[in-house]
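Whiteboard transcription, Tuesday session. T.W. wrote the structure tokens on the left side:
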């Protein structure tokens, strides 16, 4: 009887790892979509957002710094922040974004 339990636990562990990897890829995909939709990936920029963190998510974000205003990086950062995992952080947080350019 030990083998079926160990096998089931192994499958459950594999599913957990696969879901975590899928979630990470989903965030990277979202980041790429936001950049392509709002900004020129060949340009470099730095954006600082100030947001409220609660329940693992960000809300009420506003741009407090933007190194290249008018190029869409502020909109890209806001788009990315919608999916940015925050864990257990709560309260007001500053979220820096660095877009290296050259893509």
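and on the right, the sequence the group agreed on:
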């Amino acid at each position: 009887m030990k083998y079926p339990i160990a096998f089931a636990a192994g499958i459950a562990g594999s599913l957990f790892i696969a879901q975590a990897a899928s979630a990470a890829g989903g965030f990277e995909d979202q980041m790429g979509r936001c950049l392509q939709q709002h900004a020129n990936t060949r340009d470099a920029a730095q954006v600082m957002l100030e947001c409220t963190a609660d329940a693992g998510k960000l809300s009420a974000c506003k741009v407090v710094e933007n190194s290249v205003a008018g190029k869409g990086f502020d909109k890209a950062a806001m788009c990315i922040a919608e999916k940015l995992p925050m864990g257990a952080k709560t309260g007001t947080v500053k979220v820096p974004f660095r877009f290296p350019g050259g893509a």
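Someone added at the bottom: Helices lie at 2-38, 73-81.
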